[in-house]
Amino acid sequence: MTSPSRRAFVTAATASLLVGCGGGDRTGRATAERRESTSPSSRPPAKATRALGRSVPVGLEIPAIGVDTPVMQLGLARDRTVQVPPLTADDVAGWYRHSPTPGQLGPSVLLGHVTVGVHGAGVFRHLTRLRRSDRIVARLENGTAAVFAVDSIRTVAKADFPTDAVYGNVDRPELRLITCGGPRTGEEYRDNVIVFAALSSASP
């Protein structure tokens, strides 16, 4: 049976389309990806790592691409799409608060911008440079660090956003990092870049 909190997450997820950064196509559907590298469905089994208790993320580190950012909380906008962080000079990542916290069972979803308008480059501007097994560290409110290893990176058309792959049930703690990518027209990007990662360890 799905728990009330889990059911709320799934309902919210299927009612909205995550685009990762402001604007873009908000009416797309979950269909096949235009391009992908190492699909999660074909990945080798990962060593089981015990799930963590609930604790809100307050920071995110991705050493391979020089990210060290605070994390804010995001909900749903009025049109039922997932909110994105504001376009500010001190750009930060945002955690979708209707998803599990990093390290809990299920997919924890974090968003960040690739660009922030007149302020220049965004916090997730180099997500496409990540490679399999690169480390992602989520710093949690309780002082724990949840360490994830990258499984795959996909670039998908916003019109073909893979809702089930991003939000669907999984049997281990996982992480999703999402931003915009692909060709740009004005302030709009055609694609989303999605990083899939799995919990590898945790430390105080």
UniProtKB/TrEMBL annotation:
Keyword Hydrolase in the entry? The reply is yes
PROSITE patterns for the chain: PROKAR_LIPOPROTEIN, TAT
What Pfam families does the annotation carry? Sortase (PF04203)
* Listed transmembrane segments: none
Tell me the first and last residues of the signal peptide.
Answer: none
Alphabetically list the UniProt keywords.
Answer: Hydrolase
Q: Which CDD domains match?
A: Sortase_F
Positions of the region Disordered?
21-52
Basic and acidic residues bias spans: 26-37
Keyword 4Fe-4S attributed: no
The protein in question is named: Class F sortase
Q: What lineage does UniProt assign to this protein's organism?
A: Bacteria, Bacillati, Actinomycetota, Actinomycetes, Kitasatosporales
